[in-house]
């Protein structure tokens, strides 16, 4: 059997200096999308090298690759990590180290098992860690007796492998970041399924999960609840480096969320938000809009455009008390029949806390079909006027109306503009972050005129 104890014939080089050498040697020329190694890979491989039971370390660091019971996946992952270790060593021109890290100590037939390894001895007696290896062996022999040649060879090889892993860890281990491609961290099959769904980066994955909630994987082929849970665990483990967190609402179905939890999914902001979550900047609220008449000349009980839109919306045909009651009962049934009546009633129309200076908008949770249709148009026009044109609703001109018609006819693609980007795609709950109402250009144009006229109504 080949003896690898002399594989490391010199002191391991400084990782910082080696990183510079690797860059000059063409390290940056690695294929795009090459998978990266994080600290968990090294922690897991240390358990493998020492011959420990890998179940716990796999569950903690590597479960994203699959379940430990899938022995083929475990073996394939170990082989891939060893290959990556060896490739990194070769890039640093450490060819002896590259051979060393690919040696499977657990496969050596003459590997002793009766006595603890030197590494295990040092774990139990850390006071010897700073001593020379000769002194460590002397202490080991005093405790356990003089080992035979095979034990010494195996122990030296194990020590060198662990030293090599520590050196490689300082050289190539990286934390996952929000902008990283999923293919850099997930196995190719799993990353491929997400990419086919348009989810390419870690940040996009977290946005999808937080935006959709419990059933975020529903429309993604080949990703069921088990794989979804492994992905969530992996993201939670690396939350500190990614800088983005998975919301607490993701762990439970929407019907099981309390009103406050559901309401917190989308925070109020001057951005693409539902009407009740949209915050109009003071300089664009229309209080002094170009076409707004003095307050004493207006028939509306509204001091700004936002309030005028709400008055306009509330003036449309709403639900009768009987319809409201029936709607409440239907919603209670959808949430499940096992809830106490009082608690269910509180959850039927969750209250939306109004920000300081804004009206109570709880009634927006119980609109008629007619009101919901009008709400959609009012919401779109208000967002477009402020986010895209940078103007109050009551200051829109004929030229603005023409621009709005052009926008309705040809909405910009996602990310190309600040106005509603996903127009035309239907969505589910309005609490979803990616919810955008689809436009109907002809109807939207006529209703936009009605909204703008109402906001400055004097007769």
TrEMBL record:
<protein>
    <recommendedName>
        <fullName>Integrase</fullName>
    </recommendedName>
</protein>
<feature type="compositionally biased region" description="Low complexity">
    <location>
        <begin position="416"/>
        <end position="426"/>
    </location>
</feature>
<feature type="region of interest" description="Disordered">
    <location>
        <begin position="1"/>
        <end position="32"/>
    </location>
</feature>
<feature type="compositionally biased region" description="Low complexity">
    <location>
        <begin position="13"/>
        <end position="31"/>
    </location>
</feature>
<dbReference type="Pfam" id="PF12482">
    <property type="entry name" value="DUF3701"/>
</dbReference>
<feature type="region of interest" description="Disordered">
    <location>
        <begin position="409"/>
        <end position="447"/>
    </location>
</feature>
<dbReference type="InterPro" id="IPR022169">
    <property type="entry name" value="DUF3701"/>
</dbReference>
């Amino acid at each position: 059997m080949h003896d690898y104890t002399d594989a490391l014939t010199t002191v391991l080089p400084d990782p910082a200096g080696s990183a510079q050498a690797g860059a000059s040697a063409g390290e940056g020329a690695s294929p795009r999308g090459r998978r990266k190694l994080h600290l968990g890979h090294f922690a897991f491989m240390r358990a493998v090298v020492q011959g420990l039971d890998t179940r716990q370390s796999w569950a903690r660091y590597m479960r994203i690759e699959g379940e430990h019971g899938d022995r083929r996946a475990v073996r394939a992952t170990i082989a891939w990590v060893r290959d990556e270790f060896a490739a990194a060593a070769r890039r640093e021109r450490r060819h002896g180290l590259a051979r060393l890290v690919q040696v499977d100590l657990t496969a050596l037939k003459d590997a002793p098992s009766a006595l603890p390894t030197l590494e295990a001895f040092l774990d139990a007696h850390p006071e010897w860690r700073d001593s020379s290896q000769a002194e460590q062996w002397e202490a080991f022999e005093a405790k356990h007796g003089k080992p035979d040649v095979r034990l010494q060879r195996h122990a030296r090889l194990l020590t060198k492998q662990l030293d090599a892993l520590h050196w490689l860890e300082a050289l190539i281990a990286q934390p996952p970041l929000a902008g990283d491609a999923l293919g850099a961290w997930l196995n190719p099959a799993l990353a491929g399924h997400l990419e086919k769904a348009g989810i390419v980066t870690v940040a996009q994955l977290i946005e999808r999960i937080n935006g959709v909630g419990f059933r975020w994987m529903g429309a993604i082929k080949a990703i069921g609840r088990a794989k979804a849970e492994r992905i969530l665990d992996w993201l939670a483990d690396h939350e500190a480096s990614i800088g983005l967190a998975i919301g607490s609402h993701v762990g439970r179905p929407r019907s099981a969320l309390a009103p406050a939890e559901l309401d917190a999914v989308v925070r109020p902001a001057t951005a693409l938000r539902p009407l009740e979550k949209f915050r109009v900047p003071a300089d664009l609220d229309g209080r002094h809009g170009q076409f707004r008449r003095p307050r004493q000349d207006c028939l509306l009980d509204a001091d700004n455009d936002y309030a005028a839109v709400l008055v306009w919306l509330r003036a449309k045909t709403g639900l009768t008390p009987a319809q409201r009651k029936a709607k409440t009962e239907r919603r209670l049934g959808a949430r499940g029949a096992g809830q106490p009546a009082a608690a269910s009633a509180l959850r039927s129309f969750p209250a939306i806390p109004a920000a300081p200076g804004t009206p109570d908008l709880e009634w927006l949770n119980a609109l008629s079909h007619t009101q919901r249709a009008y709400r959609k148009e009012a919401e779109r026009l208000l967002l477009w006027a402020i986010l895209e044109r940078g103007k109050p609703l009551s200051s829109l001109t004929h030229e603005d109306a023409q621009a709005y018609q052009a926008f309705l006819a040809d909405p910009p693609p996602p990310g190309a503009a600040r106005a509603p980007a996903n127009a035309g795609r239907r969505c589910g709950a309005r609490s979803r972050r990616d919810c955008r109402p689809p436009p109907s250009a002809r109807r939207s144009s006529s209703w936009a005129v009605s909204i703008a006229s109402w906001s400055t109504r004097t007769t």
